Amino acid sequence: MSVTFKGFVREGNHVTHTIVTWVRVPPEAAFAYVADITRHNEWAMNEIKVMPRTPGPVRLGSKYAAVGRQGGKDWPSQLEVTGYEPSHRFEFTATGGPIDTPDGDPHRHEFLFTPIDGGTELEVRRTDPAPPNLPSWLFMNILAPIVVRYARGQRIKTIERLRERLDELADSQAVTPA
Fold first, then answer.
1. Tell me: the pLDDT tens digits for 99-153?
2. What's 68's domain CATH number?
3. Is residue 145 assigned to a domain?
């Protein structure tokens, strides 16, 4: 199955875009892989290092420090798990990075896992607030549509890479006849 960009929605001072694909692993396996934020570097388009700040396994409220490299520059950010429903929904927020966020209004990354045809439909939603140093009308009406058009290709490639990694996981779990 291909990766499908479902479009973007402007609502208030936020822009949300949605991408959907299907993977050959069950929701439990897809969720476990995506929820391990320290492995996001395996499928992200840009180099990223993620270090846990909360001890123990990932759970609601787990925090991470991340450094992503874009445009030849390191961009530190703070991540927090804000949605954790095993095999159904995983969400984390991010502050910092190349596009700053208003206090208390971080970037949101949500992953929804639905069992379909022996695999999983994976729906990925990203919501970005208007940067605090720009008038919201400028961001919402001029910059957001341009950024979404540019980022669309990058985000589709990112989800394609995630799908490839999950398909590799499916292949590695397949039973080979003796």
1. 777 788 899 999 999 999 999 999 999 988 877 777 777 777 777 777 667 667 7
2. 3.30.530.20
3. yes
pLDDT at 87 over 90: yes
Checking if the pLDDT of 85 tops 70, the result is yes
150: Cβ–Cβ under 8 A, 6 or more apart, which residues? none
Domain assignment present for residue 72? The answer is: yes
Is the per-residue pLDDT at 98 higher than 80? no
Domain that holds residue 148: 4-173
CA dihedral (68, 153, 128, 138) in degrees, to 10, reads: 110
* Dist. CA 154–CA 17, nearest whole Å: 13
pLDDT of residue 174: 62
Q: What is the pLDDT of residue 175?
A: 44
Find the length of the chain: 178
**Is residue 178 domain-resident?**
no
Kindly state the tokens that stand for 123.
């729906």
Question: CB–CB of 127/15 below 8 Å?
Answer: yes
- DSSP letter at 100 equals -
Number of domains in the chain: 1
- Strands 4-11, 119-129: pairing is unpaired
> Is 44 within the bounds of a domain?
yes
